[in-house]
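Usage example:
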Amino acid sequence: MTMADYRIHPENGLEVGIYTLGDRMPDPTTGKISSEKQRIDELVEEATYAEQAGLDYYGLGESHQQYFTNQAHTVILGAIANATQNIKIGSAASIVSTTDPVRLFEDFATLDLLSDGRAEIVGGRASRLGIFDLLGYKYEDYAELFEEKFDLLLQIAANERVTWSGKFRAPLNDIAVYPRPLNGKMPIWRAVGGPAESAIKAGRAGVPMVITTLAGPVSRFKESVDIYRDVLRKNGYDPAEIPVTTAGLFYVAEDMTTALREYYPHVDEGMRLANGYGFDKRAFAAQRDLLQSMNVGDPEAVVEKILYQYEQFGMQRYIAQLDFAGMPHKQVMRQIDYLGEKIVPVVKQYTRAYPKK
Amino acid sequence: MKIVLVSGAVIGSKTVTILNKLKDALQAQSNQVEVVLLDLRQLQMVFSDGRDFREYSGDTLRVATEIMSADALVLGSPVYQAGISGALKNVLDLLPARALADKVTTAVITAGSPRHFLVADYQLKPILNFMKAVPLASSLYVESKDIAGDEIITGEIITRIDRLASDLLLTTETYQAQLQRLEDSLF
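Running the assembly step on the lines above writes:
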């Protein structure tokens, strides 16, 4: 696969998109929570609006717990494929460990056909364990399950007929998997958390990675990106042909203080629900700094941060998480406005001049 | 203010005897404090397997949840093989890496001899530092000869328990008040 096979053209500048984990949490400032129906409609509307704002990518995660509404993420992505024409669509991420890779490929190849070649898979390992009980897998197999199934997924994508055997699934003996993606090839990424461990595995397999850079110093994540590209090279792959996406939290307001004040209750409560403890307020306040990865602030500050991250990571795509922890739909739409009007035009202008390959 | 005391012995009574006295002392010195004593002799714990602490069940979940909601923490342990008990280390292993951030934390160590006097400082405190605890400078070291059955027979130890309670309350109250002030001024 080449950069063009991944449908990425660095000379057009950094791709900018949005993604959501599909969370349906109460708004911590009002206690209001959208119904499941309302939230799913909102997701489709937000994706459509992102396309209108000129964004390049929309990603939707798969989660199976309380406070989420995207258990059937491929179905929602189907609706989004139908409601949009140009924006690329993918997962953020699909839980490969607990899904049959054949089914996953079938779903996304179908999505690729429905969307005229806009679908991408991002494969992840799950950050919450409830899914293992729900779908009948063992938590002890956490790492092994993913590696085996992700490997099969890549083989199915590369070959129409597959002969394969493994531990967690019945063998395939010269079996064809249909449908095939529109142009025969579909981008498949590996979702990577902060630490280098998964980045190294992505590098060894020569697959592009989506690395989350939620909060913390840019330098810490740069370490993982650098190691990833080193491992690519050592395994005979050309980093110039394999894209990197960074994914992180994003909130813009007219000035920095307002942005921090409005955003903190969401991040704090969202982390509390997700991890069992809130987000340290001092660590949050430190995120205003250019050297910190969370993209929070006034439009100019956030443009500066994204450009700094581009300089450091040399990524080909940046995706912003706008709706974390009960962010009201209206505010999410406003964030998309900010992206379309104030962020993307400037970011594109500068990154077109310095394409990263 | 909530203070959680963990008695990290699954058998014997020395550690829990001291912690019971400390609990009384804390309650005698402050009517604002809620003290919870977790006695591992009476709790059915599983070994940590690295999962989110909320995904454990039963006593394991309760112990982790109580500690996470504490403002201050006292970790009690007997000395086994020149170190803290495995049962207590397991309790710490259940928690997220930064679990002790902004929690004032100290130790009560019980031992059969004076030889392990530095277990709290040299062994437990590096772990607490890693977990971002606010370590209290003072801790308590009690030998078997200071305790007979459920009774503390060395008067000096009772004095030190009272002093530890007052240090803990002073530091926790001060820290919480200043932290609030600081956080209010951030943005």
